Amino acid sequence: MCSQTQTSHDPQPQSNMIKRLSARISLRWPPEPPFENTDTLVLSVGNCMKDEVLFTHELDSRNAFGVADCGTFSALPNGDDLEVGVMPRPDLPGAPVREYEEVWRELPFVRMEGHENVSFVLESATGGTQLKEGEEKEITRTFIGAIWGSFIALRQTQVLARPIGETRTVIKSGAEVSAKREDFVQGQGFVVRYSLGPEADELPTHSDIQLPASDGSLEKLVVCGQDLHPQGKDVTVKE
Fold this sequence. Notes:
single chain, mainly beta, 7-stranded antiparallel β-sheet
C-alpha cells in the first residue's frame, strides 16, 4: 500500500473528484524484457491529475518503509500509460535501486445495478499514532478502498517509533500483510477474488460499507463525508 505525493496539473474542484481504476500490464527492469507475474489493481480517488508521483510505503510486506519510488507518467499511443522511474528491485540480493518501466491500463468501472456507486479510500489505526520522544508503540493499520464495484481491504500490524530529538514518527517494522479483494458480479453481489494473510477473514468486506441511515444514525461503516466508526475503530477519510 503506497501513498502518493503528486506533481500535478489542472487541479479539479472537490465536486468533480477524479476516480481511476487501473491494472498493471507489465513491469520491466531495463535492459531486460517486460513481464507480468502479478494481478495488480490500483484504485485512485483524488482531485487532481498527475504526471509525476512519489510513492511512499504505508503498508509493506518487505518492511521497506524508508523507501520511496518516484515515477513519471506519459501516455502511450494505444491509450495505456507508461511509468518510468527508480525503485528497489526486490528480486536481487540487497534490493538495489534500479530503473524501471511499468505499463498501466485504465479499466472501466464495474457498475452495480440497483446499488449506490460510491468511491473512497479510508484508513483506521488501533492504538493511536501519537508518540512521545523515545517511545515505541505497536498499532494495527487498516486501509479500505472502493471504486464502484471494485473493493480492496489491507491490514498490517506495525511498530511505530519516535526517535529522541525528532518530532516525526517513523514505521520501525511491520508484520505480515493481510489483504482482501472483492469484485461485484451482477446477480451475485460482491464476490471474494483474493483473500490472503493471517487476518484476511477479519478484514472488512464491502457489506460492511453502508450509507447514512435516513434518521442520521451510524450503522456499520458510513462514508460520504460522515464521521466513521467501523467496528468501533476511529477512521480517517484519506481520499
